[in-house]
């Protein structure tokens, strides 16, 4: 791992040991405005299509309840001003090295009173083979806390493993679940602009939004090489 102005040696050591760290106030107000503008550009045509169909639900999206938009950069290249910004580049250099590739991006929005949580899982658990772990940056567009569904990370020492785990499908929710213990994890809390950085092998979850305000975040998944290759 490389030295970084933004990321302290203690945070890098924590990433090495526990596969996560948190950067408070990492996203500038200018970039937060850009993220919110892009989100509005995405959600407005969805609402128009809902109106046309006479429905409040299209796919997993529920009007004013929950939204999931994937691969937004491909349709809204202006998002690259954030995804390839200095702060994101600094995170990548410190944790991935001098070469990093964007794998995936998505907006996840939980509306007020949205009750559906996401259970403990590894993003890498959705891949069918052991692989070089990739990096996940969870970037909050809004203030986040446990009341409105902040992401919770399970440090490696809590999870008891640093390996990809075979997940089971929850029959009630249909979600993949890989950890069934009682550890509570560490919540990524803070003001708008906080970034949670963790590994694809980190167990994480998020609770329901019990607040009266929206909670929006953008995920970016970053890998060291262009293709997934099994580890041997």
Largest sheet: 6 strands, antiparallel
SSE arrangement, N to C: HEHEEEHHHEEEEHEEEEEE
Distance between the termini: 22 Å
Q: What is the residue-mean pLDDT, rounded to a whole number? A: 89
Task: Tell me the name of the CATH homologous superfamily.
Answer: q2cbj1_9rhob like domain
Strand order, sheet with most strands: 1-12-7-14-5-4
Number of domains: 1
CATH topology: Jelly Rolls
Helix-and-strand structural type: alpha+beta
CATH class: Mainly Beta
How many helices? The count is 6
Count of individual beta strands: 14
How much of the sequence lies in strands comes to 25-35%
CATH architecture label: Sandwich
What spatial form do the alpha-carbon principal axes imply?
A: globular
Percent helix? 10-25%
Unreliable stretches covering 5 or more consecutive residues: 227-232
Rg to the nearest angstrom? Answer: 17 Å
Describe the protein in words.
This protein is α+β, with helices and mostly antiparallel strands. It has one domain: Jelly Rolls, CATH 2.60.120. It has helices at 9-18, 29-53, 72-75, 80-83, 86-95, 156-159, and strands at residues 20-23, 57-58, 61-62, 66-70, 101-110, 118-121, 135-140, 151-154, 168-169, 176-177, 186-187, 195-199, 203-206, 215-223. It has a six-stranded antiparallel sheet. Strands 6-13-8-11 form a four-stranded antiparallel sheet. Strands 2-3 form a two-stranded antiparallel sheet. Strand 2 (57-58) and strand 3 (61-62) form a beta hairpin.
């Amino acid at each position: 791992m490389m030295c970084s102005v933004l990321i302290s040696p203690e945070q890098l050591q924590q990433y090495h040991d526990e596969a996560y760290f948190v950067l408070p106030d990492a996203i500038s107000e200018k970039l937060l405005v850009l993220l919110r503008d892009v989100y509005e550009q995405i959600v407005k045509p969805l609402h128009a299509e809902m109106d046309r169909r006479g429905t409040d639900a299209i796919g997993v999206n529920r009007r004013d309840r929950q939204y999931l938009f994937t691969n937004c950069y491909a349709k809204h290249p202006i998002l690259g001003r954030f995804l390839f910004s200095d702060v994101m580049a600094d995170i990548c250099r410190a944790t991935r090295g001098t070469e990093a590739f964007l794998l995936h991006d998505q907006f996840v929005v939980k509306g007020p009173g949205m009750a559906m949580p996401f259970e403990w899982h590894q993003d890498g658990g959705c891949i069918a083979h052991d692989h070089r772990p990739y990096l996940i940056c969870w970037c909050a567009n809004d203030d986040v806390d446990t009341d409105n569904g902040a992401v919770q990370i399970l440090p490696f020492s809590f999870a008891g493993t640093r390996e990809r785990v075979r997940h089971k499908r929850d029959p009630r929710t249909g979600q993949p679940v890989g950890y069934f213990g009682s550890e509570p994890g560490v919540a990524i809390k803070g003001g708008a602009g906080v970034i949670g950085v963790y590994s694809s092998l980190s167990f994480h979850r998020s609770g329901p939004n019990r607040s009266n305000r929206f909670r929006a975040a953008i995920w970016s998944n970053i890998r060291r090489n262009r293709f997934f290759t099994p580890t041997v």
